[in-house]
Amino acid sequence: MSRLFGNMRQVGVVVRDIEAAMTHWSEVCGIGPWFYTDRLALTAFTYMGQRHDDIHVSIALANSGDVQIELIQQRCETPSLYRDFLAAGHEGMQHWSSWPVEYQANIERALANGYTIGQQGESARGPFVYFRNEGHPGTVIEMAQATPERMRIFDQVRQAALDWDGSDPIRRTWPTA
Question: Which domains occur in the chain, in start order?
Answer without folding.
Answer: 10-163 (3.10.180.10)
